Amino acid sequence: MPRALIVDDDENTRMALAALIEAEGFSVDLAKDLRDARISLVRQTPDVVLTDLKLPDGTGMDLFKEFDPKVPVELIVMTGFASVDTAVDALRQGAADYLVKPVNIQRLQVILARVPRGSDLRSEIGQLRGELRRYGKFGRMLGNSPAMQTLYDQINRVAPTEATVLLVGESGTGKELAAQSIHDLSLRRKQAFLPVNCGAISPNLIESEMFGHERGSFTGADRQHRGYFERADGGTIFLDEITEMPIELQVKLLRVLESGVFMRVGTNKEIATDVRVVAATNRDPEAAVAEGKLRADLYHRLNVFPLQLPPLRERGKDVELLALSFLEQLNETHNTSKAFVPGAMDALVAHGWPGNVRELRNYVQRAYIMTDSKLIETASVPLQISSAKPATGSSVVVAVGTSLADMDRQLILATLEQCGGVKKRAAEILGISLKTLYNRLEEYGSVARGDSDEDEAANVA
């Protein structure tokens, strides 16, 4: 039977919570202060701790350092003096959730339903994660560099909590994979994970896609539609390229994050949702705020736990690990046994990879296709010449004598790559219409997929 510890200096609160939690199938220990709580923890480690923020001999967050990080315990902070600062501080220190008194019974029941049953099982899971990390695997991500180990530590800390996460990184660094890993390592892993690219949805339809609509609410709405926030109830929604969301919709998103309720288009009926939000951007979010692309209040609400994804050029030997993994996947798919020639990895590690992991994966696939023998040589499949830094101010290097048509092609494709495949933004930067951009891409024979970060599966082991 799972075990809960309730820490509160008010006896009526302790007894009321105990009755509720016991009804959910937990055995319950009670403590009126930190001293009693620590005595209880010595006897047995609970599965979940509900602690008041303010206690006679300290703060409930003082209990966080009492637990072995290898045995995850769900820590829920309660307070009757709620503020954004205290909520953010609790979540950043490792709280799984934050409840305001009087405690919402339905909300608490939802939290308790997600608590894993059995401390031995949780310990085994923690040990398994540690073993995988030694081989460079973590969740759906692959890499053994110090930069990635730091990222794994941060994900491991935030994943079991309910904290909103903001992923910041260049295009192709694996933001969707990081978001998926956070979901997979959280208590929501059995529920839906829905990725949404905010820059790929028509501004006229994005509110309907996010929150749904009622039949007849606008022309063409011939049936009721459930939006992402409704379909992701109990799970995680990944809002990629959050700075591309229309400002007027950002106001409504902020309201959902603060209240947990939304309304479908065409109705005033509020619908409650229990969704964790992970957002991402390849821009500097503070610069986006200054440019009016991202509301400051929404940024601060999303930025509870920011994570910076390192570019591939800062990951050293991870290039070799990833390249071999991609080649292994191709060999397994096509029943072949191709390999890189000795010394090939030196060239790959030395390359700047402005397109990051996505570019590396594409190169390995291109080299695999172009090689008829079993040995792949980088000399026979040249690495594309491009800037080592794809951030703002990057450049395209072309040789003297290159035709204007070819220069045009390189500039368009490089701009599209820098924009993470978001064609609307690329067209704005290039100063051409979206229709013209599509026409050019058709001429170049480019795959017009680019509106999402879904190819970040390049990090999959």
UniProtKB/TrEMBL annotation:
Signal peptide: none annotated. Residues 3-116 form the Response regulatory domain. It comes from Uliginosibacterium silvisoli. This is Sigma-54 dependent transcriptional regulator. PROSITE patterns: RESPONSE_REGULATORY (PS50110), SIGMA54_INTERACT_2 (PS00676), SIGMA54_INTERACT_3 (PS00688), SIGMA54_INTERACT_4 (PS50045). Residues 141-369 form the Sigma-54 factor interaction domain. InterPro entries: AAA+_ATPase, AAA_lid_NorR, CheY-like_superfamily, Homeodomain-like_sf, HTH_Fis, P-loop_NTPase, Sig_transdc_resp-reg_receiver, Sigma_54_int. SMART domains: AAA, REC. Keywords: ATP-binding, DNA-binding, Nucleotide-binding, Phosphoprotein, Transcription, Transcription regulation. It comes from the Bacteria. The modification 4-aspartylphosphate is found at residue 52.
